Amino acid sequence: MGRRRKRGLSYLPPAPSRTPFLIYVVLAAVLLVALYQVKKDMVKSVNGEVVDAYTGQPIVDANVTLKNDATLAHTAGIEPETTVKTDMEGRFNFGKAAEKYSLRVEALNYRVPPQTDYDQIFKAQIRLTPGIIKGIVKDDAGNPMPRATVSIGERTTITGSEGDFQFYDAPESGKIIVKATGFWRSITPFEKTARQDVKMTSFRAKGVYVPAVNAANEDFMPNLLNLITTTELNTVVIDLKDESGRIAFNSKQALAKSMTEGKGLISDLPGLTEKLHSRNIYAIARFSVFLDPILTDEKPEWSLKSKSSPNRLWADTANYNWSNPYSQDVWNYNIGLAKEAAEAGFDEIQFDYLRFPALGNLADISYDKDNIASNRMAAVAGFLKRAHEVLNPYGTYISMNIFGLSTLQTDDLEVGTKLEALADQVDYLSPTLYPSSWGKGTFGYDQPASKPYDVVRNVLINAKPFFQGRSAMLRPWLQDFSLEPVRYGSKEVRDQIRAADESDSGTAGGWMLWNSQARYTAGALNPKPENEVRNNATSPKR
User: Fold this and answer.
1) Of all helices (H) and strands (E), which one includes residue 166?
2) Tens-of-pLDDT digits for all 542 residues of the chain?
3) Which of 75, 159, 173, 320 could hold 148 in an S-S bridge, CB 3.0 to 4.6 Å?
4) Taking the CA of residue 310 as centre, how many other CA atoms within 13 Å lie in the half-sphere pointing to its CB?
5) 125 in helix, strand or coil?
6) pTM above 0.90?
7) 39 near 76, Cβ under 8 Å?
8) Measured on CA atoms in the order 179, 184, 185, 187, is the torsion positive or negative?
9) 203: nearest Cα among 184, 224, 177
């Protein structure tokens, strides 16, 4: 074999071709510039304004949050989420945003709208709907009214010291219903507004009682309405549930026993209130509460029982059975009836016999609880609290009849009605001040019935301190009937009215005349004041 030649150290492979380093630098620079341009093109500026949807006015200091598409934000090298505040003109601006992003806006007292997605839209106007409605309640003279009750739907609030109120999460439209003792209730519609002030119209009742049988009588009512529209009278109190327990309208409640056609049944209750309101007449519905023989027949388990005969219902001296004042079923039944009257348009619900029995063998009554003042008063207060909860959304006033003696005593008269406590539980308290009902020696008079002015004046003066600074007003029942030996005519009735008028210093809410047959003494009444006649066409909306 031949011998292989050994390579020498002088042999080297050919040198590879080298790209100049400068070219790499140039290419890198070009790529960086291109990438920069791409990122720059991906970053946009977003601006816009936030305005009130109702007024179009700018919303200042709203928080606007921009959330970029995560992938685009990462690629563009910008923050995924940024929040700014609107300026004095409601404007906002984001200097760095992706082509795809979303906006979320929050502002005090405005509803938070759904998050909105945007794609290549870089200018936005965002309209926020107010989530609050507020206002001020003022009287006829423009003065703010504290402690007025304001309702929207099922929600109720009380005005502050400056007459102010507000509701959060308010609907876009509805009605603001306001009531305050000494004023007509106000029903003010609103739509797409965050501000609605309310002006109230003062009112002082001058009323008469009307049994259901008269109110349903088409021959009787025109004469009564004529008396009201031509004299100072402006109010009717109509029995919708009397002492028998009969209901004067077709109630939806299964337990209710209505009066019959021609014997007290009012076939069109809303029509009746509409007729009264068209004449600027204030409508009060009277309900006898715990004195209810019909309910006790239907529901003996809701009734007062006799201790001596546990299987027998207790009866008073007139042989009437009473429902149990502690029974919440009884409460709900009566308040349900009152609600129907409120729905029919009555301005006020007047509860009578909202008390414990006063006549009969009271020691023989079997109660669920100890028969002590605190328990009795708690039952009455509980009923009234629930009545307010149900009736406030309608702006319906609540009043209560009490014994005249309650104005002179400081206890509950063993029936649960203590004047001092009740003055913060109702809108109006109506003591029966009939001079003929007071016994010999009252206020030093041998025959109080012969001193109608003095009796009424003394009672109202004595009661006035209980109402100072309280929510309730005093509105007494006056006598327009005769009991032997003193006959009552125009002078005697007018004397009582004069005493009530002169005793009114902001704590009294008017007066009412009682005659069980609704036969009233026209000669005791002044003519309708000229300003009331003139204002009938512009009476408050109800």
Assistant:
1) strand 164-168
2) 455 555 555 555 665 555 566 665 655 655 544 444 445 556 889 999 999 999 999 999 999 999 999 999 888 889 999 999 999 999 999 999 998 999 999 999 999 999 989 887 889 899 999 999 999 999 999 999 999 999 999 999 999 999 999 999 999 999 999 999 999 999 999 999 999 999 999 999 999 999 999 999 999 999 999 999 999 999 999 999 999 999 999 999 888 887 766 567 999 999 999 999 999 999 999 999 999 999 999 999 999 999 999 889 999 999 999 999 999 999 999 999 999 999 999 999 999 999 999 999 999 999 989 999 999 999 999 999 999 999 999 999 999 999 999 999 889 999 999 998 999 999 999 999 999 999 999 889 999 999 999 999 999 998 888 888 888 999 999 999 999 899 999 999 999 999 999 987 556 789 999 999 999 999 999 999 877 654 443 344 45
3) 159
4) 1
5) strand
6) no
7) yes
8) negative
9) 184
Alpha carbons within 13 angstroms on the beta-carbon side of residue 538 total 5
Residue in this structure with the two tokens 């003109």, named with its chain if needed? 89
Task: Report the alpha-carbon distance of residue 105 to residue 129 in Å, rounded.
Answer: 11
Assigned token pair, 366: 């079997």
- Residue 78 has which token pair? 């910008």
Residue for token digits 């945007």?
118
